[in-house]
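Recall the central idea of this unit: under ordinary conditions, the amino acid sequence of a chain determines the structure it adopts. In this exercise we apply that idea directly, starting from the sequence alone.
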Amino acid sequence: MNKKLKKINLNLEIIENDIKFFEQDIIDPFPQTSFEFVRTMNQLNLSYFTKEFIEIAIKNIKSIMKNDGVLLVGKTINGLNHASIYKLKESKFVLLHKVNNGSEVHNLIIHK
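Accordingly, the structure predicted from this sequence is:
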């Protein structure tokens, strides 16, 4: 079987046939599975949720990520994306890259 590879920034390679999408309430514990890449946009916002809610969501997201997995968190304001990209290293998120102003919950992510 010939799988197409698509290169994206940060030297990530995505095998198109291996991408899985699912919806999950981020406050509920996740099913027993693990992911190399998690994207959450326009969800972990202090204007929507309390700091405590976001900390629980980050803990739940971390629980399904593989070591060296990548997390993309951000929101769109007036058509402009503000996001941060993290790598999970030894149970801690490390900032890899910031887009525009980055994630407004950056301090919650790196301290969880």
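The longest strand covers residues 65-77.
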